[in-house]
Amino acid sequence: MEVYYSIFIVSFLLCFFDFILIKQVKRLVYTLFTIFLVLLVGRRKTGIDNDSPMYEGMYYFYREVSRNDVLKGGYGYVEKGYVFFNQFIGFFGGDFWTLTLSMSIVTGLLTYSFIFKKSKLPFLSLLFYLSFFFLYRDFTQIRYALSSSLIFWCCLFYINKRYKYAILLFLLAISFHNAAFIIIPTLAVIYFIKKKEIYLLIIIPCMLIGVVYNPFPLLLASGLSNEHMQLYVNEEGGGSWSISIVGLVVLLLYYFLLKYNKNKFKTLDANPYFGDYYFKLVALSTSLNFLFIQSAVFQRFSLILYQFVIILFPFVVYGYSKISHRKETYMILYFFCSLFLLLYGFRMIDEKLVRPYEFSSLW
User: Other C-beta atoms within 10 Å of 351: how many?
Assistant: First the structure.
């Protein structure tokens, strides 16, 4: 497991570069490290995670079937975008290693470029992403990882009112994992509900309901899911309290910083609405996490929204530097925040999730 510990430790140490003013240096270090991460995921040996043996079998099945069979669907078929991507790799003579490397490259390019573009503290954001998402998502749920990375840019284009690109990326996202559908009702809620206080208040009833009742079987009974999802419900336990609590803490920090330092905090982004937008996404995901706390499978939907916390949290930390009269206080806050993320990453290293790392052979 030393490789996984090393990833988190190196990412923690690289947080030093958030304080380097020369952007070219930051970009170079960031690019080299993220390329290493992409290759690490793409070159992993089948079987060190829970899902790769299944995906390997799917690959060799999908590359042999006809397009008509894919369009008909049925048992054994997942989202058609992923199936056609398998066939595309197979058409050019690629093997399963080619598929995993290709998925890793596309996912990494979309995710890591978004972080560097939008985060005020990209290395802190990167550490947050690695600690909360890297092992269970990039290493294991490769369809979900790619779909989530597309949603990063889908939402950004939506914020910028570039709706054609947003729609295109949304369609691509759902073609790899249907959890991306959650973005449609989410954007509708954000469009109609403007006040941040409402988003915070919604969390309370969701938490109370989620503790005493699991509403997910009700969704299944209403026909809003399928047999495959029912298998997950039967096998999996409850969701994570820790990510919900972390989300709630970040939301409260953002809310009170903005409330009492509004003029200073608005200057953190060319468009101050961006911060509120991320706040609303994380707030809705936190509410859903609490509401479905007894159904781990539903977090595949809510975590697509929750992933924007990797931008919101550094936004808050950086914002504190603008209102703090002492730089030392800000440095201490940054250190303990990054230390918490490091320890959380260590907590994610579990043989139930990943086995000791091995490179796959090229031959």
Answer: 8
